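Async update (no meeting this week)

Hi team, since we skipped the sync, here's where things stand on the single-chain job. The sequence we agreed to prioritize is pasted below, unchanged from the tracker. I ran it this morning and attached the output directly underneath so nobody has to dig for it. Comments welcome in thread, and please keep replies under the output.
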Amino acid sequence: MTIRIDRRSFVLTGTLGLGAWAIPGFAQGPNWIVDGFTHSVASGEPGPDSMLLWTRYVGKGDSAKLKVEVAESADFARVVAGGEAITGPWRDWTSKIVVSGLKPGTRYHYRFVAPDGSFSPVGQTRTLPEGGAARFGIAVFSCSNLGFGYFNAYGHAAARDDVDLAVHLGDYIYEYPQGNYPALDEVVANRLQLPATEILHLADYRLRYASYRSDPDLQALHAAKPMLIQWDDHESANDSWEGGAQNHTPGKEGDWSIRRAAAMQAWREWMPVSDEPWKSYEIGGLATLFRTETRLLGRTKPPSAAPFFGAADPVAALTAFRDGAWQDPAMTMMGWEQEAWLAAELARSVRAGTRWQLVGFGTIMGKSVAPRQAMEWLKPDASESSKRYVKAGVTMAALGLPMNLDNWGGYPAARARFLKAAQAANANLVVIAGDSHNAWAYDLAQDGKPAGVEFAGQAVTSPGYESSIGVDPEIVARALVETNPELKWCDTSRRGYMALTLTPDSVRNDWMFVDTIKQRTAAASIGHTATVARGRNMMA
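Output:
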């Protein structure tokens, strides 16, 4: 099959419509185009009277001026808002227009108009409610690896009438080359992302987004719901931080600052997001939703346990780490500016009488250590790296150290500062998190007192514990809960998304599990439900 690349931006163009694929293995015919609308439409950054609208249009010249039309009816009989913008190869032909003057809590239809009068696909979006909202539904996603399976979670949520907003907590794409996570024999239905190599440069990141955004279920979700999006590590490189990443070797892969800048630029081009690194959103007096940044702008380098296991006495080395560097107050996930902002905003939200404070983080905050019997769970043919990882986790657990130092477990002082700020503000705190690929429900505590709850979501497709475990997942879940006092429930074997329902007096979270990711299907069901009552800061 011949793939046509836009010579002006070196980025693969997509196809028209929501149902057409645009990457090898998905093509439904000779539908490659050089110019026109590609990758459908999207909306984000919702307010009570405004919305950011996104599309991609490849023009025939060096630039193109697009218009957008917004109407309450699908026939656009009365256009109530609009705008114009110029796009070109300098921004990979993507376009973002913020429209204002909209009504709160209202569903709108929108479409873009090209210079030749052609229209983009029609999208739907909904403004945030204003004052006295009785209910609000949010679908929460993370960790969507194209190669591991179909994005059925996106398709299921797109069709729901009770979802007002989508939130993606990171790992929207993955940076690896074809054949690495997943291996080629694990790739489902030839879902091979482009480019074939690891993404390092701006053109690479752009093409990877074009590849992912050609998925019809992802297009359908973007076209049906406004989405708030924040990055985690794989939008740049695995286990990234301000000054580098686990999956970045300067001598081999170049200057980290250049790669990081390329990753950030492509993300801002392809996502329906503003340039603000973090932001709060008011949901009709019902909740303040906080979008945070915990990877590339202020995070200090995460600690690694690997060097301790190379020491002459690993236990002594780990003990010294536990009692010293691990508790370093200089370690931060968000950076000091964002920490101060979030603490102040939590207090402001409470003073305003807002019922809930909802904070999205890329990684899990709840305390988790490995159960002592974890080595017994491994499959007989488990990789040596899996065995080393689990053995290290068990050793660390015996010393009171968490099994993951790349999440909030590696930053205990920063975690304590955040939870103390929430307690001082008297917040009704609900944390939502991604990254782990599995489903978790935690009661968060600080200084022996309730501080909030955390609902952590399973991956859209990326594999979890089950990929290396050879025992019943119920055995794994039971041992994890028994070992970790903050953990109240978990599932370590299924994929999907979370459906969060906010009301003035309670928040309910449904972990939605899709039947499969090996075939494209809309089948999904509720696997578990947890609720928290206002004023409790712990699950019912």
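Quick observations from my side:
The first strand starts at residue 5 and ends at 6.
The two ends are 56 Å apart (CA to CA).
Reply here if anything looks off.
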